Amino acid sequence: MPPSLPRPALTGLEAAFTACRLTPSRQIIARSLSTTPSHLRQTFPPDSPKFITLPEPPQSSEVKHPPVKGHLPIPRNIFPTRGGSAKVKTAFIKSATPLSKAEAAGLPPKSAAEAAARRAAAIRRKNLEEGIRGLYSRKKLHQAKILARSQYKVEFNTARANAPERLDERLTRSTVKESTAKQVQVLPDPRRFTKAIRAKHKVERLAAQKSEARTDALAQLYVAAQTFIVTEEQLEERVEKLFKEDAFVSNGSKETNMWDAQGAPISIGQRQAQIAGLGSGLSTSSRGAAQAAVRQKLVAEELSGGKLVIEER
């Protein structure tokens, strides 16, 4: 290890600073040079407009209005649309501020106080009349201004809409050849009136079909309503018939449930076969007889204009 080099001697000032830095018990206290007390200092964030202090002129033109809290009430319509002009008439003003009985009878005031009261009442009547007439004239003037402004806008817009094309627009418009314009233009369909008549007939036919289907459904509902249970006697009779002990016994049979008496419910495959006309479990003759019965029922309903009711035996 090489020998350490000798350190130079410290002067008095450097020795003092070294002692202050090395001694933990001594601390340098930072002192602010501002004369403003600490409790009056304000710290503004960077987003505050007061973060950067700008000088203001002695007489600033900025007018700072105080905050207005609440809202102003909606003014009442003194002169409504119907009967509003009647308030300007003298009869309304007289009825609103009638004379006293003594004054109407022409009697003189009995005292100075009564005379002063009569003069005050006369002043109030005069002020009311002048106020009503002034408000009515202001309303008429306001309505006339609104009407004039509206008419001016209508005339201005109409003139602009009917004005010829401006020269700058015509000169700066893109050029289109006449042959190209004829090729790309959309001509009216020459058969549009025929198509419109055909569409009208189609709509009428669909409406007639909907009306007929609605009438047919209503007739079916009317026919089905004959078997609806609407009274307590019918409900009791139906319950006694279905829940008696020998409900499923017929012709000496020994059925004990609905499936034994009427068979299992029809399956989806059987229903699809019936719709397709194939049938399931029926012979050719039986299927033909069933189809003939259905056709006869439909023909009879078409001829009679109603629904047939097939009573179960």
Verbal overview:
With 313 residues, the chain is mainly alpha-helical. It has a domain of 66 residues. It has eleven helices and no strands. The termini are far apart.
Give the SSE map.
Blueprint: H1 12-22, H2 90-96, H3 101-105, H4 112-162, H5 167-172, H6 178-184, H7 192-224, H8 232-242, H9 258-262, H10 268-276, H11 284-304
Comma- or semicolon-separated keywords:
313 residues; mS26_fungi; extended
How much β-strand is present in the residues? under 5%
Largest sheet: none
Q: Can you give the helix content as a percent range? A: 40-55%
Question: How many strand units?
Answer: 0
What's this model, at a glance?
The chain has eleven helices and no strands. The protein has 313 residues and is an all-alpha fold.
